[in-house]
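Possible regression after last week's pipeline update?

I re-ran a chain I had predicted before the update to compare outputs. Posting the input and the new output here so someone can diff against the archived version. Not blocking, just want to make sure nothing changed silently.
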Amino acid sequence: MSETDIVTVGRALPKLAGVEPGPGRFAVTVRWAEGTRAGRAEIVDLAPVIFTFKVFKPLRDGAVPFADLCLGEWGASVVWPGHDDLDIGAETIEELAEAAMTNADFSTFLRRNNLTLDAAAAHLGIARRLVAYYAKEREIPRYIALACRELDRSLTR
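New output (post-update):
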């Protein structure tokens, strides 16, 4: 190996290029600088993290305004200035982004797996009407997005 050879192991770590408050109580608009989502801008709901860990209580109760968020050092996280313990890493944000699903993603999921509205409803354990809403305009809950991801794995085996 020469001095210019670089050894890489695994996938590239995510880095954020920019962050700003998004259109929801705990949503953030992120721009990705590096990693599998590099070059993309998307809205990510941070609520699953904020409501899971006690450290984020000041954000939940409004003692620290969520809108005060900013990009952490080296793009490795989202932070709230003056509150060193309030920090959400880019890897965690990437995981939340991967668990999200748009209406177009949901429609693609249905086509890819040749699922009718009735079949999707049966697999997901929800009403047929909800499947139709998710394919068009209704926000898709995280648990449905995760269920679809698992169904994708099991139906393509």
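Follow-up from reviewer: compared with the archived run. Residues 79 and 87 are 5 Å apart (CA to CA). Marking as no regression found.
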